[in-house]
Every structure is written in structure tokens, then in C-alpha cells.
Amino acid sequence: MGLEKILSVAGKPGLYKLITQTRTGFVAESLLDGKKISVGLRSNVSVLSEIAIYTLDEELPLRDVFLKIQEKENGEKTSVSHKDEKIKLEEYFFEILPNYDEDRVYTSDIKKIIQWYNLLVENDLADFSKEETKDTEKKEKKE
Length: 143
Hints:
By secondary structure, the protein is α+β, with helices and mostly antiparallel strands. The chain has helices at residues 62-73, 86-96, 107-122, 132-142, and strands spanning 6-9, 16-22, 25-30, 36-40, 45-47, 52-54, 59-61. The strands form two sheets. It has a five-stranded antiparallel β-sheet, with no helix packed on it. A hairpin with a 6-residue loop joins β1 (6-9) and β2. The chain starts with 5 loop residues before the first strand and ends with a helix. Residues 51-120 form the DUF6852 domain.
């Protein structure tokens, strides 16, 4: 499952896995406790595949940031906690992404990224490779 099915719901902690769409919104399952919730269309929801992090030269997709963390941590959880102090979090993030825009990426954003990464690793959803399988299937059908 790619990041296209993982959601962040405003006002709710953690991440959610999209289960199904309904007439009035959709049903999602929490990665924290496994509880299912129904989310209305008016809720502020972000799909992880659509989130990007500001750097000094461009916006880097969250998938690429997760790949850099995964590379540094050898696929394990992060060496820092999202509850660590601000300076420690910023130092860690600077190791991962040395050119991130310090004026536009806040400590709260770094905390979320670290927490989300660890949640995805815990739930065996840490496959951050791009969705190339769809492209490969299309090419095979053409041949």
C-alpha cells in the first residue's frame, strides 16, 4: 500500500488508512489503535502522497523525505522521538535534509514527519518506493 491511501485528518492524532469511500465521505482506520472512523467531506484531510516539504530550491515530496530517513535508519524507527526537544529535532532533520527551509518548516512539522514515519514503520507500511507498478503494467499491456 502506497502513501496514496494514508491520510492525516485535522484534529485527530496519528495517521489513518483509507478503507472505503461512502456517499458522505469515507471510512478510515487509525494506525494508532485500529479503530475505524467515518470522515465527512467537510473535514480537512491530507493524503500523504500530496504533501511536500519546503527546501531552499524546491518542494520535496514527503515520500522522498521518508526515503532519506529510511536510508539513514536502515529501515528501522528513528533514533529521535517526536517528543524530543526542539534543537535535537532540528539537528536530526538537518542531517536528513540539509537544505530544508528553516523559515518555512516548523518544529511542529518535523515532529509530525518523525511521528508519521515511525507509525508507518510500526505498521509495516514503510514502502516508500514510487508507484511504478502501475506504469510497468501499462507498458506491458502496450507490448
